[in-house]
Design brief:
Length: about 270
Amino acid sequence: MDCRVASAMLLAMTRLFCSSNLELVTAKAIRSRQSKSGLRNQNQRTVMEVRDTEKPRKSARRRADIIKSFRCKNLIAVIEDPTDLRNIGTVIRNVNALGVEKVYIVDPRKALPDDWQDMRERKSLSTTSVSAVKWTFVKRFDSTKACLAHLEKKGFVSVVTSPHVKGKTNIYLHEGDYTQHTKLAVWFGNEKRGISELAVAHSDMCVAIPMFGIIESLNLGTSSGIVLYEVTKQRREYQSKYRRSRWKGKRAQQLPTVLPHENEVPSEEIQ
């Protein structure tokens, strides 16, 4: 009787051991398959992420090629002593969207890095400009004097956005001819103080936006968008008719002044 009990107990223990080993092997196999499956999924996700990042780059390069001839050459927007980084980002966005060639920033507080590449990686500028800073040339100066000296050395004529200034040529925005100077710099002043006396003294004229409300002021982002729209419109129309390179003169065939709609772009340009 004791032998039969012992045999039964041994048999039960053997079955339990085999069952445990089987469950262990099965669990290992399942984990192995899950690990391989997870690795495959991760690899697939990595490939998809690479493809997703390549698409915007290709799209941006294609866009850059299409808009190249529409950009306004030798046109610079100058922001003098801005205090709000959000306004700087907005102006850079306006500059890029409207086809202005460059942005100069007079930054006496040294809130921005000197190197353009460092500026492109500054999250505060990238966010507020909706990444336009990555596609726009931006140069900073320590002072208004240094910026003016650089512009004058390069042969640029400055105009400032300002209300009426006694002793200066004062015009409303729509009255100005912004094509008479090959190289033009358009200045925008500080959010509170406006443009400096030094910048006004070195400017060709003062440009004002006509206003018809009780409040006769606009923020920096809005005013820069309005002014640069008029300036770029005029200069783009001029560029479409005349050359400003060493082969000056009227073009044999007028260039377009606006981009075609996407469904009108020739297929060879969008491939």
